[in-house]
């Protein structure tokens, strides 16, 4: 019999249970509060008319394996995807597991152990092969197996735990993190990937509306965000009369230079030899592009520089369409070293002067890490989210001032307020209590994690149907983290900062020491929970000295 209270119109991750898992031991997670269906909604009709996505916040101290939980969810859906497409199983989850999700009113279960239907507990001795069921019936064909339309994983941490997998092996998965390889990350590659997301977005008008909201409402700036490419060797390639002879001559001179050198030639030479040395047609297309942007006055001068800029305003639909049309050519020019990789600039034109060299320009590298994180992460989400999607966000509070942490969920609800997104499930792992206090009870649930005396991970027991919306920081710290504070907002900020530094394994030891000294002069009783924080901070400093 189908579980009626879980007949959602879109996608919802409902349950995940482990037995003897290496990381989680034996533990069961409920990602949707049943009361959200049973009491707050009138079953299918009401939830089908509701226009907000569902949010699950996983909160807990460092070491409670929140990031690993998000990673494991992705690995399980990858297994389902591989079963559906008859691919080899590349990264199976160990131990016994049971995953339950709802998709457009159907209930899917992915498991490798049986359950006792009378008490809904696992039958540990009755191990079975992995099975996938739909509404209680075994999926007889691959067509019966359905998954969320997309799974997006967002994080701004260089050491995030999200799988870094090739698209062709897991088509529905979008890694939106900052890494450009499994082991490394750099800003240039991340900006280039953000540009790709903008180019490939399906709904340009919705993306533009979202970008405007991020810039004006969240970042509260009046600058116009632009994608900018800068020319290299401008006098050779961008003077309006480039031809094949001059094009070949430039690269041939470099080839001669490196012919008898022990130093390897730059990558652009390999790209030229492979794709353009003998290909006149492809070469002519590039040459025409370079000449055309000069003749149509599309190049923007850079003060005190011979280089020029090619710009696309990403708050203008025509500019994004033009970038999409030219992107393949632009990428070839980048690989040939004729233009630089893209940057994202914020431009404030001087309305009193028509000369573009009087503009005020801020490069993305010059903004704060918080502004960078918010802008690029929200663009990535907007460009990749689809109906019936699962979105996993790990530690969005990284580099964010508490004011932005408090705004984050409210702004995300506004950004994805369109009916299109109500079919999605957002799961956020965080250390920040501000995310809990901004949850609306009707469309959300909280999973609190902690370690018990045996160093095992367990779920913090919260009252059924709890609504934390509008909770004070003191209530969140006490109820979720077992820490009580009744001090003023300045103390709360310092408390948030030191716990965040420790939870993120920060190397900013000077800041931690200063905060410890600041707390140490406060008169507190022996039973005050602040002693626990001071002890943890001192242990952290001793361990890293």
Description:
With about 550 residues, the chain is an alpha/beta fold. The protein has three domains: about 5-185 and about 385-480, Rossmann fold; about 225-365, no CATH class; about 490-545, no CATH class. The protein is built from 17 helices and 18 strands. It has helices at about 35-40, 45-50, 65-85, 185-200, 205-220, 235, 245-260, 265-275, 280-295, 315-335, 370-385, 400-415, 435, 475-480, 490-505, 510-520, 530-545; strands at about 10-20, 25-30, 55-60, 95-105, 105-115, 120-135, 135-140, 150-155, 175, 225-230, 300, 310-315, 345-350, 360-365, 390-395, 425-430, 445-450, 455-460. The strands form three sheets. It has a seven-stranded mixed β-sheet, with helices on both faces. The radius of gyration is 27 Å and the shape is globular. Residues about 1-5 and about 35-50 have low confidence and may be disordered.
Q: SSE layout and pairings?
A:
Blueprint: E1 11-21, E2 25-30, H1 34-38, H2 43-48, E3 54-60, H3 66-84, E4 96-103, E5 106-116, E6 121-134, E7 137-138, E8 150-154, E9 173-175, H4 187-200, H5 204-218, E10 224-230, H6 234-237, H7 244-259, H8 267-275, H9 280-295, E11 299-301, E12 308-313, H10 317-335, E13 343-348, E14 360-363, H11 369-384, E15 389-394, H12 402-415, E16 425-430, H13 433-437, E17 444-451, E18 457-459, H14 473-481, H15 489-503, H16 509-520, H17 530-544
Parallel strand pairs: 3-16, 3-17, 8-9, 8-15, 15-16
Antiparallel strand pairs: 1-2, 1-4, 4-5, 5-6, 6-7, 10-12, 10-13, 11-12, 13-14, 17-18
Helix pairs in contact: 4-11, 5-11, 5-12, 15-16, 16-17
